[in-house]
Backbone:
């Protein structure tokens, strides 16, 4: 079945550091790929998405490129802020069903 | 536009007790989802409604979990009787229609079963 594997956390960074969270997937079809973010005390929010190979999703300085050849969708941000502290979930959608990774907790220190 | 509302936000019960969670989706959203998020894991779909009909409940432990969406608007998820392993965050999400990529999530209800 479909599955998502993402980098284990927690990840602790200093402000302005470069962030990357690895995500790989297994799917039988051609899924859409997502990154969701969960800030403390809040619900999951869609951060970005890509619907086909080589698409790049971007939002709030975050980027991820759909790489079909490596079945990956790694999340990157060039300069993180304290406000980026959250749990990040990689997910895939196949036949309109979402499958999530386990989440990666990111803490950014001032 | 108001988001997905859930209540209560937190609940502590003893095993074998019953508990119910409520969700009010975004106005006009036909599709409603309940997810279970166990600590350290990603959300797992329990049940999906389209209006007041069930689209997918293949992952719902039907011996103890039940859900309804009367009138196709708000929804209730019940656990009876609860087990220790039911301790999790229960997330509700909605989308305008079934075959829609973007789901909008509520803040969740955190359940602790002692």
Residues:
């Amino acid at each position: 079945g479909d599955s998502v594997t993402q980098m284990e956390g927690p990840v602790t960074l200093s402000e302005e550091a470069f962030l990357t969270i690895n995500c790989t997937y297994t799917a039988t079809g051609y899924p859409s790929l997502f990154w969701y973010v969960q800030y403390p005390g809040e619900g999951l929010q869609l951060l970005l998405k890509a619907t086909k190979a080589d698409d790049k999703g971007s939002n709030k300085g975050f980027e991820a490129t759909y790489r079909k050849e490596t079945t990956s969708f790694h999340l990157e941000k060039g300069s993180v802020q304290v406000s980026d502290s959250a749990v990040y979930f990689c997910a895939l959608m196949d036949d309109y069903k979402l499958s999530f990774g386990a989440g990666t907790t990111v803490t950014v220190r001032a | 536009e108001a988001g997905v509302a859930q209540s209560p936000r937190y609940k502590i019960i003893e095993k074998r007790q019953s508990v119910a969670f409520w969700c009010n989706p975004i106005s006009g959203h036909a599709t409603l989802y309940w997810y279970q998020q166990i600590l350290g894991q990603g959300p797992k779909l329990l049940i999906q409604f389209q209006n007041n009909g069930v689209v997918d409940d293949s992952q719902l432990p039907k011996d103890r979990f039940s859900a309804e969406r009367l009138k196709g608007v708000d929804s209730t998820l019940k656990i009876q009787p609860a087990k220790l392993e039911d301790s999790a965050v229960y997330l509700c999400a909605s989308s305008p229609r079934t075959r829609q990529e973007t789901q909008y999530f509520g803040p969740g209800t955190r359940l602790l079963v002692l």
